[in-house]
Specification:
It is rod-shaped and about 145 Å long. Helix 2 packs antiparallel against helix 3. Among the domains are: 90 residues, no CATH class; 76 residues, Arc Repressor Mutant, subunit A (Orthogonal Bundle). It is mainly alpha-helical and 265 residues long. The chain has a three-stranded antiparallel sheet. The termini are far apart. A hairpin with an 8-residue loop joins strand 2 and strand 3. Participates in chromosomal partition during cell division. May act via the formation of a condensin-like complex containing Smc and ScpB that pull DNA away from mid-cell into both cell halves.
């Protein structure tokens, strides 16, 4: 014996069932056939009873409503009475018994669409995970107190004027600029310094400088040392990085032998 299994869809109410039947028939709500919809609706209720499913009262109320509308449509319509021009009666057009049901179906479809949209938004929101905000105060930089808080522009101007008056009372320092020395003359002075240490003797570059030397004199001294290295009279090296430059005399000549050399600068 073959067992037949029935599976009925679950509907939230009679309007939901009617919308399902209308969509299944692919007809416009305004063009529904009450006779066909009523037959399909009653057939569904009969299937529920055969499967011993509980049929709620609202489904039965809708069945009664459909039968009432169907019976009204089956009743003959009253004949149209033609009136003479002497009579001016106004007859209200009889309302279609389907209108109220159609309005309910349209409204239910609208709210059903809104509910589906909200359900979709709820599902999307369930995929988002949030975290409670933490106290980030320990990681915030400390706000430095304003050093001039409480002071006004007039106070700052007064302090500036006082400092300017104090500076005006200081003695003016006069600087006497020495005559610029040439690389050739400075080279002779460096050779003269080596005469006291002899061949193989060593001098520190810092010994050739003094605190009162100008920037120009320091540069000229460095150029003179480079010239002596170029002439292979001295070698220079450092014991460590950024240490003082050690100069070692390797030449044979005296200071008089360097008096005739030609240097372009």
């Amino acid at each position: 014996m073959t067992t037949v299994t029935y599976k009925l869809e679950t509907f939230e109410g009679p309007l939901d069932l009617l919308l399902h039947l209308i969509d299944k028939a692919e007809i416009d709500i305004h063009q529904i056939s009450i006779s066909e919809i009523t037959d399909q609706y009653l057939e569904y209720l009969q299937d529920m009873q055969e499967l011993e499913l509980e049929v709620t009262s609202e489904f039965l109320v809708m069945a009664a409503t459909l039968l009432s509308i169907k019976s009204k449509q089956l009743l003959p319509k009253p004949p149209v009475i033609e009136m003479d021009d002497d009579f001016d009666y106004l007859f209200e057009e009889e309302e279609d018994p389907r209108d109220e049901l159609i309005r309910k179906l349209i409204e239910y479809r609208k709210y059903k669409g809104i509910a589906a949209h909200l359900h979709e938004r709820e599902w999307e929101r369930s995929l988002i995970f949030s975290k409670e905000p933490e106290d980030l105060t320990p990681f915030m930089p400390e706000v430095q107190e304003n050093p001039v808080k409480g002071l006004h522009a007039a106070d700052l101007i007064a302090v500036f004027q006082k400092a300017m008056r104090r500076a005006a009372k200081r003695n003016t320092v006069a600087r006497i600029h020495r005559d610029e020395i040439s690389v050739k003359d400075r080279l002779k002075e460096v050779v003269s310094a080596f005469e006291h240490v002899g061949k193989g003797g060593r001098l520190l570059f810092s010994k050739l400088l003094h605190t009162e030397m100008s920037r120009h004199e320091i540069v000229v001294t460095f150029l003179a040392v480079l010239e002596l290295m170029k002439m292979k009279q001295i070698v220079c090296y450092q014991n460590r990085l950024f240490d003082d430059i050690v100069m070692e005399w390797r030449g044979e000549g005296s200071i008089d032998e360097f008096s005739g050399i030609e240097i372009d600068y």
